[in-house]
Amino acid sequence: MKNIITSIEVQKRNKDRVNIFINQEFAFACSNELIYSHGLRKGLEVDPKRLEQVVKDDNYIKGKTSALRYIERAMKTKKQVEDMLFKKEMEEEIVARVIEFLISYSFIDDKRYAECYMKQKLKESGKNKIKYDLLKKGIDEELIKDLLARVSYEDESSVALALAEKKARILGKSERDKGKLLGKLTKYLLSKGYTYDLINQVVNKVALTIAEDEEALEEPEVDFEELLALAQKKYNVLKNNEDNKLKLKKKLQDFLLRRGYSYDEIRSVLSQVIENQEEFY
Fold first, then answer.
1. SS (HEC) of the chain
2. Structure confidence by residue, pLDDT tens digits, 216-274
3. Which architecture characterizes domain 5-104 according to CATH?
4. Where are the domains of the chain?
């Protein structure tokens, strides 16, 4: 039986596609551009191989359209596009044809993708994590090694130190144990993809900074004799103009507070300076 195209009808919901009827029965739908490229028309006799090629070309157009929409939102690797097309149940032959088209027009470029990805991720991740992530995206391992080799140890270390210092400040709000804090910091940097050698170097620097900060925050030891002499001297001046012992105490206390002494330090000398201390405590 001959295969005669008996009707070609534009789809109601999609004017870019048509329905093909052979021998009065619906056969398949395709892009209307294929009507012209394959010379299809009503009354034309077509053999199965020709029809098969039309269907393949139509699937290619659909695959190409899907791929272009996919990469329009963000850069993608060859593998990511392939995976997307296979999920749409595209045949391997069609997928290969779409990929060839995308590469030929530089719509996908794994080297360019890897370079851009690394430039961004080096601000927050180590080489190990970047390598792992790029391998998952289908980037060639040798290409990854070549690109990572261009990143200096000093640059990577500098970023790791900045991340570590920021994380240490956050951890320090809830973790007072220095050893535990540094342990958590090490795990954090490992999760970021840094090597043990680099982490040890960075954590040691952070530990030194913490120690210096703690030392700077330590209150200087108060010279009790000096404080007592100062309080006694001021007391002798104040008592000449103030008979009320409560007010006298308050004025002396305020004076010593202004000089930078703490309440506890001041209380330690008031009882020795002011007579009848039981009235005040």
1. CCCEEEEEEECCCCCCEEEEEECCEEEEEEEHHHHHHCCCCCCCECCHHHHHHHHHHHHHHHHHHHHHHHHHHCCCCHHHHHHHHHHCCCCHHHHHHHHHHHHHCCCCCHHHHHHHHHHHHCCCCCHHHHHHHHHHCCCCHHHHHHHHCCCCHHHHHHHHHHHHHHHHHHHCCCCCCHHHHHHHHHHHHHHCCCCHHHHHHHHHHHHHHHHHHHHHHCCCCCCHHHHHHHHHHHHHHHCCCCCCHHHHHHHHHHHHHHCCCCHHHHHHHHHHHCCCHHHCC
2. 545 556 677 888 888 888 888 888 887 787 888 888 888 888 877 777 788 878 877 87
3. Orthogonal Bundle (1.10)
4. 5-104, 110-148, 153-217, 224-279
> Six-digit token pair at 191?
């999760």
153-217 and 5-104 share a CATH fold: yes
Specify the pLDDT at position 277: 42
CB atoms within 10 A of CB 211: 11
Report pLDDT digits (tens) over 163-198: 999 999 888 888 888 889 999 999 999 999 999 999
Class of domain 153-217: mainly alpha
Q: Report the candidate in 279, 278, 272, 275 with the shortest Cα–Cα distance to residue 256.
A: 272
On average, the pLDDT of the chain sits at: 88
